[in-house]
Design goal:
single chain; alpha/beta; 17 strands; 36% helix; globular; chromosome
Length: 524
């Protein structure tokens, strides 16, 4: 979908969610974009037939995910053609089928459906929605929108001209650029569409949203998405970027920063981890202090509160390289008290501080699909816009320093507890003579279906515990969340129980395995 300045993307018309308001404006259709979880209201004059522009668009868009989207279109068309042939065979005895009329390529000055309609058919004015808003669906684990088997809902289009019969296979389209940029659209808002079935496609959105949405809580989100899908249309900041810590998460982040054209200087406690990034164009910093002094913005992503403190206040630490105006961004998942301490020491030297822990995994980090939770200096958050767009699909600004740490611990507390419960269910199924695979199949058809559940359970059944998120880190996060609950005088019995299971898993030497290895705590 061509939203604003971004390249076109193949899509198909689907029925919109029933609870969507009917916006005013020109006639348009609700479009699902292939290979993504993005949907948008696209004006009729901004749609182009797929086949007529396929080769042109493939030449322009060389990205891997764009090719995957095209493959998804071709697969959809192939299946649709097969269904048509089966239907034709069954209906031969009832008479000849009325030949279909080809879709006309829409021109720039087409204002309505007249270019596509059979003149003898009734106008769609009363039944066709007339929205002008662009709706963004949540694309995190557990969300998605399965493609409808019928492209257009019967209740939305009771009057079907001849060309409508072609929509299933032919109205795969390239939406044109919107006349009103996303950031200027007063109707823009994003929403999460819950679903109970596994998504039928990958969850990568197709465009980097530049819109900032102010919510009632005062938090802000910058909608962003996969950078590969838009073929590097991010304009990287000209500020020099430093990055400290090249672990599971940091490696993917740095790789995406480099791919999007940022100037990056790296440092890691184990120096050989820097070699790959030096080959990709990064510069090498000898100490954290040197990186901070050389760069305008320095990011840090390390394992725990102690490592975060040592990196800043230890020998040759970041603090020694901080000068007035220098920015420091703490991406590690730590407790709010550590964030407060780091913020104070950085700002005491005239530096600017932002915390920005990330929700995700190694896979999501590599794909540039993390969710960034930021808090602290708002101007630093805005200065880092291109960095956050390169590394994540969405970033949220949550106010004063410490808020992001609190939110991150709550999220990881829920994830850790959930993973332990899934492992408990799998082992209980086995203990009671039930098939674990059948348990997973049923689970993935219900309301808890998600990529997270599917991947982790499959890993367990295959005995594959290669770390995507370290078990020792989720246990650390549970411990910190429980402590935060104690300080707030709020009970956390579920987290406390899960924490004990992870502690047992650590005692069984599972610390450096994936969080799904908590399963082994139940079988030993």
């Amino acid at each position: 979908g061509k939203l604003g300045r971004y390249p076109p993307w193949p899509g198909k018309i689907v029925s919109p969610p029933k609870d969507l308001k009917k916006p005013r404006g020109k006639k348009c259709h609700f479009v699902k974009f292939f290979g993504t979880e993005d949907h948008a209201w696209i004006k009729v004059e901004q749609l182009k037939p797929y086949h007529a522009h396929k080769e042109e668009m493939i030449k322009i868009n060389k990205g891997k995910r764009f090719q995957q989207a095209v493959d998804a279109v071709e697969d959809f068309l192939k299946k649709a053609k097969g269904k048509e042939q089966n239907s034709d065979g069954k209906g031969e005895s009832k008479g000849k089928k009325t030949p279909s009329k080809p879709l006309k390529i829409l021109e720039e000055d087409d204002e309505d459906l007249s270019a596509l309609k059979d003149p003898s058919e009734k106008d769609l004015t009363d039944s066709d929605p007339e929205p002008s808003a662009i709706e963004r669906l949540g694309a995190g684990p557990g969300s998605g929108f399965k493609w409808e088997s019928s492209v257009v809902a019967p209740d939305l289009f009771p009057f079907r001209p001849a060309w409508f019969s072609l929509l299933t296979a032919e109205a795969v389209c390239w939406p044109r650029a919107l006349e009103m940029p996303v950031k200027d659209d007063p109707h823009f808002h994003h929403f999460l569409l819950s679903q109970s079935e596994k998504p039928a496609s990958s969850m990568e959105p197709i465009s980097k949203r530049l819109k900032i949405v102010e919510e009632v809580t005062g938090s802000t989100s910058i909608q962003a998405a996969d950078s590969t899908a838009i073929n590097g249309s991010i304009t990287p900041t000209d500020k020099r970027i430093g990055f400290l810590g090249l672990g599971l998460m940091g490696s993917g982040i740095v790789s995406n920063l480099l791919k999007m054209g940022h100037i990056v200087t790296v440092w890691n406690r184990t120096a050989e981890k820097c070699d790959l990034f030096i080959q990709e164009g990064a510069r090498l910093g000898r100490t954290p202090a040197e990186v901070a002094s050389m760069c305008d913005i320095t990011f840090s992503c390390v394992s725990d509160p102690k490592a975060a403190r040592d990196l800043v206040m230890g020998p040759s630490g970041v603090l020694q390289g901080i000068r007035p105006g220098k920015c420091y961004i703490e991406m590690s998942t730590v407790d709010p008290e550590t964030i407060t301490e780091l913020s104070q020491v950085i700002t005491s030297r005239g530096g600017r501080f932002l915390e920005a822990p990330v929700a995700g995994s190694q896979q999501l980090s590599n794909e540039g699909m993390l969710v960034i939770l930021a808090a602290g200096d708002r101007t630093v958050y805005e200065d880092c816009s291109s960095c956050f767009q390169a590394m994540g699909k969405t970033s949220f600004f949550l106010g004063e320093a410490g808020n992001a740490a609190r939110m991150m611990l709550i999220l990881n507390m829920v994830q850790g507890s959930f993973m332990a419960t899934i492992a408990e269910g799998l082992t209980l199924a086995q203990a009671t003579g039930q098939s674990q695979q059948t348990f997973l199949d049923i689970l993935c058809q219900g309301q808890m279906a998600s990529t997270f559940v599917d991947q982790k359970c499959q890993n367990i059944l295959q005995g594959n515990f290669k770390p995507d998120y370290y078990l020792k880190h989720i246990q650390k996060d549970l411990r910190l969340a429980i402590s935060m609950g104690d300080m707030a005088n709020h009970p956390t019995p579920m987290a406390a129980a899960a924490n004990e299971v992870y502690k047992r898993a650590k005692a069984l030497d599972q610390s450096d395995n994936d969080i799904s290895a908590v399963y082994r705590a139940y079988i030993h």
